[in-house]
Amino acid sequence: MSNKHKIGLVDMGGGMRGIYGAGVLDYCMEQDILFDYCVGVSAGSANITSYLAGQHGRNYKFYTEYAFRKEYMSVGNLIKKHNYVNLEYIYGILSNSDGEYPLDYNAMMSCRSVFRIVAMNALTGEPYYFDKSDMHQDDYGAIKASSCVPAVNLPYIIEDIPYFDGGMTDPLPFERCFAAGCDRVVLILTRPKTYRRKPDRDRVIAGLLQHSYPQAADRMRHRADIYNLQLETALRLERAGRLLIVAPDNIGKMKTLTKDKQTVIGLYHKGKSDAEVIKQFVNV
After folding, report:
1. Per-residue CA distances from 10 to 64, 178, 188, 269, 273 (Å)
2. 108: β partners
């Protein structure tokens, strides 16, 4: 991508739905589209690490093969480790330099794009934005923190601070891109534009967090309001030509932790197809 504008990217993640963003970013690699400022949330932050490292197809392998292993996510993990999703397995054992599919850390770090990773400080309920410089070879704690879903995982601890999934506190952080000087932003959603979040499930999770992390619980109770308000703002910015939303028109019965491989694969290809609108948007 070569133009005079500064273009931002946000990938909202969404567990296994994040494969849609993986498809979008593989298309971008195929078209040599490199964004200037990238913000990843939860699984979206993991997608962006592979994208910045130039590892086309790496995310696809994780979603369609590794995710179906019991070591990746299982009730057994929950019983033994109190973590249904084994973040150490995904972003450690598999991703480290001696792992089955290492992240090309040096390529990611040498990429000129700025990269921010959103997590929630469990003590305050506020968002925290890690920088890619917070990651080191074989130490991808920022991605683990951003992807740590309450009620599914215990909080992820970095320097004595517990973190939960960034989607709990700043689910659509496109304003970070504009604040950093971006002229336009591409926002990857993993639900249709018409989707509006309901607070019911968030209230249940908030109840589970209330005793140990009351501030995080309070933020969870407002999660639906935050998401819906951010989406309405994004839609207004899209109508003004400043933001492009890339979102599936339909995800069927796809859930955050879906284990239906054909549905997962289909969403990847939908992402690649839907991403075709990006090329014109970034080159205007």
Report:
1. 22, 11, 6, 19, 18
2. none
The 10 Å Cβ neighbour count of residue 179 is 11
Asked whether the predicted pLDDT for residue 261 surpasses 90, the reply is no
Angle at 65 between CA 253 and CA 107, to 5 degrees: 110
Query: In a 3-state reduction of DSSP, which class is residue 41?
Result: strand
| Better-predicted residue by pLDDT, 273 or 256 | 273
Q: pLDDT band for 60, please (50, 70, 90 cuts).
A: very high
Q: Is 22 helix (H, G, I), strand (E, B) or coil?
A: helix
Give the closest residue to 149 by CA, choosing from 94, 101, 78, 197. Answer: 78
The whole-number pLDDT of residue 5 equals 80
Q: Which two tokens stand for residue 169?
A: 């506190």
Which residues, at least 6 apart from 92, have a Cβ–Cβ distance to it below 8 Å?
A: 99, 138, 140, 144
Alpha carbon distances (Å) from 197 to 57, 91, 122, 123, 150: 30, 28, 21, 24, 17
Length of the chain: 284
Residue 241 predicted with pLDDT over 50: yes
Give me Rg for the CA atoms of the chain. 17
Q: What long-range pairs does 1-5 form, CB within 8 A, spacing at least 24?
A: 1/31, 1/32, 1/33, 1/34, 1/35, 1/282, 1/283, 3/282, 3/283, 3/284, 5/183, 5/184, 5/282, 5/284
**What mean pLDDT, rounded, does the chain reach?**
94
CA distance 143 to 197: 24
**Kind and range of the H or E run holding 217:** helix 214-221
Residue 1 — pLDDT band, cuts 50, 70, 90?
A: very low
Task: Name 38's bridge partners.
Answer: 9, 115
